[in-house]
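Q: How would the structure tokens look for this protein?
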Amino acid sequence: MDIRLEEVKSILKKYGQEHLLNHYDKLDEEKKKELLDQIENIDFELVNELYNSTKQTKTKNNDKIEAIDYLDKFKLNDKYKYYENIGKKAIKEGKLAAVTMAGGQGTRLGHDGPKGTYDIGLDSHKSLFELLCDNLKEEGKKYGVTIPWFIMTSRENNKDTVEFFEKHRYFGYQKNKNIFFFEQGELPMMDTEGKILIGEDGLVKLAADGHGGIYESLVKTKMTDKMRELGVEWVFIGGVDNCLVKMVDPVLMGIAIDKKVTVACKSVVKDNPHEKVGVFCRRNGKPNVIEYSEITDEMAEAVDENGELLYGESHILCNLFSIDAIERMGKEPLPYHVAYKKAKYIDKDGNLVVPDSPNAYKFEAFLFDAFGEVDDMAILRVKREEEFAPVKNADSAGVDCPKTARELYKKFYHLD
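A: Here is the predicted structure in token form.
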């Protein structure tokens, strides 16, 4: 241990992060080992690069932004059955897997536990996990298959998530046969001086690396290898907080296969021109998502010859990828975006600091930043009321909350 400790001290000295061992002697043996493991796994060159990025002034963006073509699921006419049949065949052949991103906690909902374990208030009292599982099982029965289900957790909620599934007997799935759990990547949080924070537990304060880490996590945890063993060729990736998510959609799959694209995404039309959502576009000729903060009023209000918004296709985190695309995107990390957050930490004197304003940098990758890696993709517009009922905020917010999601769910499934 002493040799290892000296090696770690040497690494920390090189990068000016010696303070990470300030309280090492006060930790028990297990925590000491965990802290050393953490430090050895930190890419300090990347961390320095990320910190330096917070000091750079943003240059004016000269990217060429253009509208992108899409298909409306309910205006496909004769093509609907054509695409559906292609997709059905692939699903029946066991070529589809589903991935649910469930690394978050239900804190904003006042829920103590993983967000997927949250009960949105239906009479059944089913959790978000069970609602998603019900849909997966129902679709699997239609095609005579069990859709393999991969659930991305985080270090923070992995244990609680797995125990929740164990308690509910995996809702009929079988662990390590058709349901698998893997953890999301993490990056250290840093203060404004570039020092990595120490958390309340005396360990490095880590934060999830955003939904853009999904590709790298799938590859690093060898989940893509598992998918290939199961004969999977297509992977639907969605979030746990959308209780109407349709992870099995033969029309979307049929379009991807027919058009020979490696990525196919669902969209819903914006509620209004200035709704604060990211929308699909072409950036310098490549498929992309533009954040609402980048859209000028002129762009937001622009319409085509049919009166449809040119930039009206909202990205709702419902995306289908070929397994080849995931492996390609997972080879290198995506660019990271900086978020300035409030974070508790232990100071040099061992005191817990609870800030009342943002004090730390968190680094996140966005899933859609990988879209620029492909030459083309398919976008399928679906109906908001049928496929998008997110649970992001407390009821007091009035939007994207348990109440609105519950109403949409009950209406869609005729539960009133």
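The two ends are 63 Å apart (CA to CA).

Residues 1-41 form one domain.

Upvote if useful.
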